[in-house]
Amino acid sequence: MSKSLYSTLEVAEGASQEEIKKSYRRLARKYHPDLNKGKEAEEKFKEINAAYEILNDPQKRAQYDQFGDNMFGGQNFSDFARAQGRGSLDDILASIFGRGALKPTLAWAGGLCQHGEHGRV
């Protein structure tokens, strides 16, 4: 089975959570659309975030380790992510794990939540 999420984050299959986090941060900085204006940077940044979302969660990672790319309908992860088109990261993950499996996440900008919650971090 191809472990494309691991290769997306440039880590070995047996990488520790700390190694995954460190590699994610390095790659996120490298491909962040605000810092990298290359044509492929935004797409690569989305793939990195999606891979981290799965590999950073022990339950999702275990499921991925068990089923590999079969979780994505037999496609490799990159093709699956591209095939999802304009869907958000939440849409991609919901198609894999179901809506109930997603933990609520909050997007913070300047300390204010963008999902209707108010307050500072």
TrEMBL record:
Domain (J): residue spans on this chain: 4-68
Pfam family, one: DnaJ
Lineage: Bacteria, Pseudomonadati, Campylobacterota, Epsilonproteobacteria, Campylobacterales
Keyword check for Ion transport: no
UniProt keyword Amino-acid biosynthesis present: no
CDD domains for the chain: DnaJ
Protein name, per record: J domain-containing protein
Keywords carried by this UniProt record: Chaperone
Domain of life: Bacteria
Source organism: Helicobacter gastrocanis
